[in-house]
Write a structure and sequence with these properties.
317 residues, mainly beta, 4-stranded antiparallel β-sheet, 34% strand
Length: 317
């Protein structure tokens, strides 16, 4: 885990040692969340007491604490996303496998470290193998996606209410459908209750991914389809962020140099490529971006840069 200052100075906050605090090569895929005291919370996809992943806390002094070790059944295994945190200190996340049917779970971890399984996926019709985490609304409902699963085995968008009841909001129809398929990423929620996300495939016939909206009534609209040869991006694996004007921002592969793009999508569905990576400045922006109050975007690439080991970048307005 690292921190980068405003001047670009990196500080290593913690180095994972392998089991039990994380295991190579399947360490912390997900990011971290931070509380007001400066503690960081996240997951590793392996490691922990059972070797099946864990939820951890890193305090402001660099001391790591294992909050929960996954055991496979019934509590899940291999979390690929990070966690979110509510005002009471409860953490929420997903595991990509394990649970009662081995298709993954949605879990809650309270402030004392007690885990509750909120939902175990069964594949059809309710989804399977969530790669993404969850978001939470003011009423305590959770929203997320699964990568496969559902009636067409191409992924779903789901809602989990505060009582643990799951509703499938949308079932993707497959690579040749007009609604997208195989969402790696989760969703974002606007003030009107609309959800927005990306799929890594589908959109229109033979297209290479899509940006979609699901309104509060459960109607899906494809806002943009990425198309071959991919100069405007293709096969997005990251989620989106939303600004006050309704513009969406995200990352995708492809681009002018084949190393990925950062894009903006207007409320009218007009896509603008904000930046195409060349390789020397980064390649493979598999995760999304965050935005500050001045409109600067920040993110990471998995490779490229001067050492070909990835970069942390900023894109000015």
């Amino acid at each position: 885990m690292f921190r980068i200052s405003a001047s670009g100075q990196e500080t290593i906050l913690y180095s994972f040692k392998g089991a039990p605090d994380g295991a190579y090569p399947s360490g912390p895929y997900g990011g971290v969340v931070r509380d007001s005291a400066g503690n960081l919370y996240g997951t590793t996809s392996a490691g922990g007491a059972a070797g099946l992943g864990m939820v951890y806390k890193l305090d402001a002094n660099g001391q790591e604490t294992e909050l929960h070790s996954f055991t496979g059944s019934p509590d899940g295994s291999a979390p690929l996303a990070g966690v979110i945190r509510d005002s009471a200190g409860n953490l929420y996340g997903t595991t990509s496998s394990g649970g009662t049917s081995n298709y993954g779970t949605v879990f809650e971890l309270d402030a004392s470290g007690h885990e509750t399984i909120l939902h175990s996926f069964r594949s059809d019709p309710d989804g399977a193998t969530p790669y993404a985490g969850v978001i939470r609304d003011a009423a305590g409902n959770l929203y997320g996606t699964t990568f496969p699963g559902g009636f067409f085995n191409s992924g779903i968008v789901y809602e989990l209410d505060a009582a643990g009841h799951e509703t499938v909001l949308w079932t993707f129809r497959g690579p040749t459908g007009d609604d997208g398929s195989f969402p790696y990423a989760g969703v974002v929620l606007d003030e009107a209750g609309n959800l927005y996300g990306t799929t890594s495939n589908g959109g229109t016939f033979n297209s290479l991914g899509a940006v979609y909206e699901i309104d509060a009534a459960g109607k899906e609209t494809m806002l943009y389809a990425f198309a071959f040869p991919g100069a405007n991006g293709l096969e997005p694996t990251a989620g989106l962020i939303l600004d006050a004007a309704g513009n969406l921002y995200g990352t995708a592969g492809g681009g002018a140099f084949g190393n990925g793009v950062v894009f903006e999508l207007s409320p009218a569905g007009i896509e603008t490529v904000l930046y195409s990576f060349t390789g020397r400045d980064g390649s493979g922006p598999y995760s999304g971006v965050v935005r500050d109050s001045a409109g600067n975007l920040y993110g990471t690439t998995a490779s490229g840069g001067t050492e070909n080991a990835g970069v942390v970048y900023k894109i000015a307005p």
